[in-house]
Structures are given as structure tokens and as C-alpha cells.
Amino acid sequence: MRLGLSQVKVYHSKMRIFQILFKYSLLLVCLFCPAGQSAISPQEIIQRADEARYPEGQFSFFVKVVDKDESSETKETVYLVHTKDSNNSLVETKAPERMRGRKLLMKKHDLWMFLPTIKKPTRVSFEQRLTGEVSNGDIARTNFASDYKAKIITEEKVDNKPCYKLLLTATHKEIAYPRIVYWVDKKDFFPIQVKFFALSGKLLKTGKYSGIQPVLNKKRVTQLVITDAIQGKKQSVLNYFNFKKASYDDSFFSKESMSD
Fold first, then answer.
1. 79 near 91, Cβ under 8 Å?
2. How far is CA 156 from CA 35, 197, 221, 227, in A?
3. C-alpha to C-alpha distance for 141 and 83, rounded to whole angstroms
4. Contact (Cβ atoms closer than 8 angstroms) between residue 207 and residue 226
5. Closest Cα to residue 251, out of 119, 88, 80, 87?
6. What is the pLDDT of residues 194-227, one digit of tens each?
7. C-alpha distance from residue 27 to each of 13, 14, 23, 258 (Å)
8. Is 245 helix (H, G, I), strand (E, B) or coil?
9. 239: Cβ–Cβ under 8 A, 6 or more apart, which residues?
10. Residue 217 φ then ψ, to 5°
11. Phi-psi region of 101 (alpha: psi -120 to 50; beta: other; left: phi over 0)
């Protein structure tokens, strides 16, 4: 069937409108999804921020914690952390000398402490204070992605860096903080700062990440400064260093081996 002249004109007009709308849609895609980028889920953001703090797989590292209080006095504690995966870690106290031999064992959602003077592992909580402003969970559990469900609240600048601001809600009750507000750099997914909240909604403490250095072939943050939310002069500075790849037998992460 042949189209009349008026029908042809209408057809071409419709095609022209379609082409304009298509080009406009492509422009919107380019504006909101720049080249090389695509939509990213909140869970993927915290997963990549986890990787900017710790390597994947089995590894060990040291943490030096410097505690400061209102009197400006400081104390130092050094821990050696062994990590098999997000459910198995062992923390050994290496300094000061009087505390050597103390250990924390994490098995999934369970945590035990071993003291040489007691000779028997004791069940403890992740939120219990380990030293200064540092809880047991701050050292023993290293993975936010496995413990929290994330939601993007907004985007804002921190230290002049565009960041995702996320709300992290705990997926189980056996971890140190029921809620966390977390700022992650949009460009490279380095964590920038964090706020830790109690179940009641009370702000407990804040944290700032820094010290970007090469760690096992990738740049990662190597310092976290934790500050008490009420008493701002109470701080703990955590410096992470000497990361090494490792291979652990399952028996290494057992209560029976803690006294070895």
C-alpha cells in the first residue's frame, strides 16, 4: 500500500521526534554515568572500601595502638593479627611485655579471650573495650561487607573529596556496633571517615582514615584515629603495618590451640 504525501510527512515528523528523544536519552546516560563508570550498589561500595583497608584471602599484620587521654599521657600496645577469612581471626598481644600471651579468637560470631594467668578461654563480646577507644571487634573483625547491609544516604564532600555517605545496619547482633555511618571516596573507594552508634542511636565514637600506602601490591589506608564522641581528648591511633600473605590450617583457629 502506497502512502499519500500527507502521510509521508507525518511519518517523517514522527521519526524526527523519535531521533531527538533518542539523542536526548543518550545525553542523560552520559551525564549520569560518565565514561568508564556504571551504577554501583551500596554493598559493592563497602566491599571495595574493605579491600582498601585489608587484602583478600589469608594474611597477617601488626597493629600498633597509641592511646591518649585527658592528661595527654599515652600508652602503646602492639597486636599481631592472623586472618583466614571474615569468620576466622586470632589476635595476639605482643607488647607491652606484661601483656604478652593474651589472645583473642574469633570464630564467626563467637569471640574468646585467653589470659596466660587463667589458662582457659573466656567468652567475651565484640563491643567490649580492648584498649583505649578500641573494642574487641575493631581488631578481631575486619570486614564491614559481611556484617552490614548498606544504604546510600547522600553524597557530600569530606576533606574536599566527593564521598558516598552510607548507613550501615548490622545483619546480626553479635558485632560491636549496630549502626555505622560511613563516608567512602567516590573516586577510589578509600574509606574517609566513620561514626559508630549504639543500638539506642547514641553516637559512641568517630573515626578518620589516612596513611595511604602500598600494601601487598595495592594502595590501602594504614591508619585509623578513633575519638570518643563525648570526651574528644580521648583517642586511639591505630597504625597497621607489616602485612604478609599466609596459609593457615583450620586447627590454628581453635580454642585448644590458644594456650600454645
1. yes
2. 21, 20, 20, 22
3. 9
4. yes
5. 88
6. 999 999 999 999 999 999 999 999 999 999 999 9
7. 21, 20, 6, 61
8. strand
9. 63, 64, 65, 66, 211, 222, 223
10. 70, 20
11. left
pLDDT interval class at 7 (50, 70, 90): low
User: What residue type is assigned to position 15 of the chain?
Assistant: M
Global pTM? 0.83
What is the CB neighbour count within 10 angstroms for residue 134?
22
Residue 94: name the closest of 77, 112, 74 by CA: 77
Following DSSP, what letter does each residue of 55-122 receive, concatenated?
A: -SSSEEEEEEEEEE-TT--EEEEEEEEEEEETTEEEEEEEESGGGTT-EEEEETTEEEEE-TTT-S-E
Question: Which residue type is seen at 189?
Answer: F
Give the DSSP H/E element, type plus range, for residue 157.
strand 148-158
